[in-house]
Amino acid sequence: MVEQMEDPMQDIIIQRGSLADLDRLRQLAMDTFTETFLADNTPEDIAAYIDEHFNLSTIAQQLSSEHMQWYLALYHGQPAGYMKVNFDLAQTEQEYPHSLEVQRIYVLKTYKRMHIGSLLMQQAINLAREHKLHMIWLGVWEHNTRAIQFYIRLGFKQFGEHHFTLGNDVQHDYLMKLSLLNDPVERKINE
Question: For the domain 8-190, what is the CATH code?
Answer without folding.
Answer: 3.40.630.30
